[in-house]
Amino acid sequence: xSKLVPAVRSxxxxxxALGFGTWQLDNGTARPLVEQALEIGYRHIDTxxxxxxxRDVGAAIAASGIKRDDIFLTTKVxxxxxxxxxxxxxxxxxxxxxxxxxxxxxxxxxxxxxVPLAQTMAALNDVRERGLTRAIGLSNFPSAVMAAAQAASKxxxxxxxxxxxxxxxxxxxxxxxxxxxxxxTAWSPLxxxxxxxxxxxxxxxxxxxxxxxxxxxxxxxxxxxxAIPRTKTPARIAENFDIxxxxxxxxxxxxxxxxxxxxxxxxNWLDEAYSWDVD
Length: 279
What we know:
eight-stranded parallel sheet, 37% helix
């Protein structure tokens, strides 16, 4: 399968709008699934230090035979390594595990209040200046903290990776990101499988001959949002990639947006020092 995945301009890099996420793919499960994703046509792979699968992800990339420059590779620094010096060493360790000399994007995994943000951003910029990553970014940062991080950074923030799916509005954060010239990357874009039984998404899918999950992923990339669905089911990897041959109408997009609800957030692990955006 070979299809052209659209790219999103994010800071100073182009990111494929559809990627393969590897959260919870540990204990050797990541390698065969990443290998399959790359064979299908994915060229954006997302991992993190805390996922404990960087070695498997790197092995899959090496085994694929695909040129390193043709794969957009993201990893994330865990919050225990946000101090100057610790962050740089942790980035070097990630590269060693991945078996590469650089990643395309290095993210701060969650905001951490007990290390000054300016210190962390300076260390993150240092990693970029040393060529260990092409771009830097954030994950799970509310808009106010995202703005503070950008203000403390010499390099542009390439993306903010956050939970986003039909049941969680992120309109405030998305507007802030676009105004700053950065992008949003959606983790758990399928609401951890909850979209599969949604009658609105089922109905839209029947119109296009697509599954509710495919409709949801299409809804995301039509917004200019990057989606990184994760699945442990091999057949679903191909299904999630097959979203480039149809388009949702404005009315269909609006109907999906209307599914957002106040209790839609699935991962509420933000430190109490910070507050989520209220949409």
